[in-house]
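Students often ask what a 'structure token' actually looks like in practice. Rather than answer in the abstract, let us consider Histidine biosynthesis bifunctional protein HisB, a protein of 380 residues. Its sequence is given first.
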Amino acid sequence: MGERKKRALFIDRDGTLVKEPPVDYQLDSLEKLEFVPRVMRNLYFIRQRLDFEFVMVTNQDGLGTPSFPEETFWPAHNLMLKTLAGEGIVFDDIRIDPSLPEENSPNRKPRTGMLTRYMTDEYDLANSFVIGDRLTDMELARNLGAKGIWLRPSLEGAEEELKAYPVALSPALIAEDWDRIAEFLFAGERRAIVRRATKETDIYVDWNLDGTGKTEIATGLGFFDHMLEQIGKHSGTDLTIRVKGDLNVDEHHTIEDTAIALGEALLQALGDKRGIERYGYCLPMDDCLCGVALDFGGRPWLVWDAEFRREKVGDMPTEMFLHFFKSLSDAARMNLNIRAEGTNEHHKIEGIFKALARSIKMAIRRDIYKYELPSTKGML
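Now compare that with the structural description of the same chain:
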């Protein structure tokens, strides 16, 4: 059995470890040194719990020239390293490229010239990560054959920036803070892809529990699509559902089988459920009060207290609402207690779906610092 390959975190400096100074973007005085929030506790956690080597990789434009003398760079840089070391965070390697962009140096990120020693069979680059605040860092990840983690102040606008970038990039994670980065590296991705094909339906579900609320839903039933979009949007998860069903017969198989596939995806994505909150609940919507309490306890059960007087809402039969949630509860092995009161049928069912989404959001919240099973039994 061969020796296990090494993994590395290639970490940008300015904007990722320390805040990038405005105007000149040069960290050239002690007064400008300010760490990115929560970077220290999370880097220490990663250093203690995981086996990554730490490699700092930074472009410092014109370092050593009159515009950026070395004597103004090193005091702040060394204080940064000393402060990190005092918190148990030591870098195994530091790579600094001082070239200017117009020089087209092979060492300048996103080029890989500074990192050739890592591009050998000694390192598992496919399971290593580049962490940075710019898309050039994500391009460096692509050029290395590693994965990218893009740290940015907000998730808003990220997709547009990626589309506008001249090179096709797909970061493994877009994160707003170091808490999210540490969680991802330690506990992994919570994503499941389920394909369910029968003589009656062909269903594809891709559910990423640690997404941003993006949805792509196409079941052939407009109102059902609208309800399923609520689940992704209001739970903050990324949800793709594509269904080809026998709608020429009726809506029953499409709705039931979608619920089963959704439940299977949720169960798979949750994994062993360590660190999750486990429970969630509740929502008002206009004239309605809708409550969804759930428990990812490993046992299915549904309590349904909602009546609908119309035969259909949109193109979805109201008799299928109960059936959808029963199938979802069974497949996901979760308790669902659903209650709704009010006069507007559309608002009632939409409120139920939104309440379900908010309950999921609460229950899947994960804390890597309390990474235990939320159960006295020792299993869920």
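One point worth highlighting: The chain has two domains: 7-187, 191-364. Ask yourself how you might have guessed this from the sequence alone, and why that guess would often be unreliable.
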